[in-house]
UniProtKB/TrEMBL annotation:
Organism: Brugia malayi
Protein name: Pyridine nucleotide-disulfide oxidoreductase domain-containing protein 1
Entry keyword Oxidoreductase: yes
Domain NADH-rubredoxin oxidoreductase C-terminal: 291-355
UniProt keyword annotation of Oxidoreductase present: yes
Organism superkingdom: Eukaryota
Length: 377
């Protein structure tokens, strides 16, 4: 029977981030990581594009490489039983591990309602590899779903007939309103073109949302990293993890949030307990991904959820080039959706964080001939 101070179950970004933070804060404690695969996911090519906004890739690497120099014990196994009262895990190799504190970062399971040999529920790298194998000789694919994974599959599949079945009135509704969906719709037919037309003229709109009936804004649950290998590629990872007591402060479980940030936060919580305070990164929601070949950035309350009504929506749309949406309440920006190379992310992030009053410049804020940052120097 193995015994340790900390056990982390899982092999994703959250688990790796938790391990790294634990070791940074406690260089002597014994740490055991349990995962069913020796390939684990980690963050690479990290690039800051704002105070909080970051762009990075997810890569699968050998556990020996990721944990090199961290003095971490890795166990390739699956947990078959959890005795939380006695703080003990039973593994499928009959090994038992006792611990002082436990972090569960195993991820969720898709709701697979279709039990058929020809049905594949896409969730992670393994299921994408399965899809790649199965479509080699296929002539037609039915894609069911309207979230990020479905959107990327529809965009990336080539040389095959695609039927996209959705229950909403517009595509990608879990991420975008109907306006953004219209911006992306031509990409379904013609694909993304790197060369843009010189005749595109930005169009600006402004309207007010006063009640739910008038709102075209849809809520969003951001999906996980799911495929960066093979011949189809997907969105970057976004998870919601939060540590909770279950039923004491010795067990830390992950729910949905950004994996890297919350994995690190979970590690600090395991060491510091109640003494921990929220990190600055939780001041505002940020997420960077890509759809249909465009960089897409979500900032703050980008879908209008939780924003006091009435609020204004400012739009700037340049066909095949960019889509900019700002949500403004009481003269202050509450959220934004930025599609394309807008160069607005850092300025808009600062305006949301600092809640600067833009009432005097709101009319011309999205004028393409005016540098937004110049307003706030």
């Amino acid at each position: 029977m193995a015994s340790c101070s900390y056990v982390i179950v899982g092999g994703g970004v959250a688990a790796v981030s938790c391990v790294e933070e634990l070791r940074a804060m406690d260089d002597k404690a014994r740490i055991i990581v349990v995962s069913s695969s020796q390939l684990i996911k980690t963050v690479v090519n990290q690039q800051k594009i704002g105070q909080l906004t970051e762009l990075f890739d997810i890569a699968e690497q050998q556990v020996t490489s990721v944990f090199a120099g961290l003095n971490v014990t890795f166990v390739k196994a699956t947990v078959t039983h959890w005795d939380w009262k006695n703080k003990e895990l039973l593994l499928d190799n009959d090994e038992r591990i006792t611990y002082d504190k436990l972090c569960i970062a195993t991820g969720g399971r898709p709701k697979a309602n279709f039990q058929h040999a020809l049905s594949i529920s896409i969730r992670d790298t393994e299921t994408v590899d399965r899809l790649r194998t199965r479509i080699k000789d296929a002539k037609r694919v039915l894609v069911i779903g309207n979230g990020g994974i479905a959107t990327e599959i529809v965009h990336e599949l080539k040389n095959i007939e695609i039927i996209w079945a959705i229950r909403h009135s517009s595509i990608s509704a879990t991420f975008f309103d109907e306006g953004a969906a219209e911006f992306f719709k031509p990409m379904l037919v013609h694909g993304w073109r790197k060369e843009k037309s010189n005749n595109t003229v930005p169009k600006r709109y402004r309207f007010t949302v006063e009640n739910e009936g008038e709102s075209g804004v849809v809520g969003c649950a951001l999906g996980p990293e799911w495929a960066s290998t093979a011949d189809i590629s997907g969105a970057l990872s976004v998870y919601y993890i939060f540590y909770i007591s279950y039923p004491s402060s010795l067990i830390y479980m992950r729910l949905w949030t950004q994996a890297r940030q919350m994995g690190a936060y979970c590690g600090r919580a395991m060491v510091l307990g109640d003494a921990i305070s929220l990190d600055f990164c939780f001041e505002m929601f940020t997420h960077v991904t890509s759809f249909f070949g465009f960089k897409v950035i979500f900032l703050g309350r980008f879908n209008g959820e939780g924003v006091e009504k009435p609020f204004r929506i400012l739009l700037r749309i340049t066909k095949d080039t960019e889509y900019v949406k700002l949500i403004v309440a009481n003269g202050r920006i509450q959220g934004a959706v930025l599609v394309g190379e807008t160069d607005l992310e850092e300025t808009i992030e600062n305006l949301i964080l600092n809640q600067i009053d833009i009432s005097q410049v709101e009319e011309g804020l999205l004028d393409p001939d005016i540098e937004v940052a110049d307003y706030f120097d």
